[in-house]
Amino acid sequence: MKILFTASECVPFVKTGGLADVVGALAPVLAAQGHDVRVLLPLYSAIPQKWTEKLTHVCDFEVQLGWRRQYCGIEKLEMNGVTWYFMDNKYYFGRPYIYGLGGDEYERFGFFCRGALNALPLLDFQPDILHAHDWQSGMIPALLKIQYAHLPFYANIKTLFTIHNLQYQGIFGIREVQDVLGLGDSLWTNDKLECFGCANFLKAALVYADMITTVSPSYAEEIQTAYYGERLDGLLRARKQSLFGLLNGIDVVDYNPATDKALAANYTPDDLSGKAVCKKALQEKLGLKVDPDIPIIGMVGRRFRGQWAPCRSAGRSSAKARTVRSWRASGTDPSPRKFCAKATARSRAAARAYPGALPPSP
């Protein structure tokens, strides 16, 4: 099977969160099973030189965005059985950040979506499945169905869209997105592209993708409820026959405790003694009392409601038991940190919110 991933980040090249881990780990696994897997990413200035110096030029062309005609270059790297493509445009991707704070993000990733589709014939690659990830690739299934599907090259391409985090949707003004992508007024109804008076890249994918997946069976159920659905629960319920939750696995190479150099000590199923050393090192790092008899509950994730809320009631009960410590990392929402402070005040055991930081891409 021929598969093209489109994503805004991917390890080992560039990473801000779990999306990069999934794309970077899944593509080589599928390739090892005999599929022709290729991945298309933006060529950010943040990608280390150790990778960019290995790229070879494949093609270049112009992408029409409203009245603008923008250069689009495609660079290539072969590694781990996967062909990695990088979309080059210094104006959009040569900036000192991966994601901006609004501004022209609709234009940056509108360019990425349009460029991805326009590049396919020039790459001499006709995928059976175009697998788009998160809102930054969300317009690809919509553009394919609306503007490309009548062309013979694109007619048989099926689209799969994966929701990694429903909270981030790519919401912008309708007129701005219309201007960039040439999407007519008839498309801006609530059963198509319009979403509460705005353009919504993620909703566009949910409407037009042939299949939808998300990162676990439980998350697939949760996002169909009003509490977790981020105002898209009705649409997700309407598409429940095409919505599947596939549990994310772990990278057993990078996160192998027998060889992981980031651990204080290594361990194996046959010799678990290193785990006690790791626990002691973690307690010391977080400023907790070093005690081998007190369990530690760890959760690594972004500090926002959807990932933290299910753990709060359990955390309260554990804090009452006065024997449990919890550890968190990453994110921006202050509520988990407040909860940890309250848990510490209530209990002899300590709860810690560790803001952490993602290491730079290797």
Written description of the protein model:
The protein is an alpha/beta fold and 362 residues long. It has two domains: 244 residues, Glycogen Phosphorylase B (Rossmann fold); 68 residues, no CATH class. The protein is 34% helix and 22% strand. The strands form three sheets. A nine-stranded mixed beta sheet has the order 3-4-5-2-1-6-7-11-12, sandwiched between helices. It has a three-stranded antiparallel beta sheet with strand order 8-10-9. It has a three-stranded parallel beta sheet with strand order 13-14-15, covered by helices on one side. Strand 4 and strand 5 form a beta hairpin. The chain starts with a strand and ends in a 9-residue tail after the last strand.
Q: What is the tally of helical segments? A: 12
Total number of domains: 2
Strand content: 15-25%
Structural class, from helix and strand content?
alpha/beta
Major sheet strand order: 3-4-5-2-1-6-7-11-12
Count of individual beta strands = 15
Please state the oligomeric state of the protein chains shown.
single chain
What spatial form do the alpha-carbon principal axes imply? globular
Which residues sit in consecutive blocks of at least 5 with pLDDT less than 50?
318-322, 358-362
Largest sheet: 9 strands, mixed
> Can you give the helix content as a percent range?
25-40%
| CATH architectural name of the largest domain | 3-Layer(aba) Sandwich
Average residue pLDDT: 88
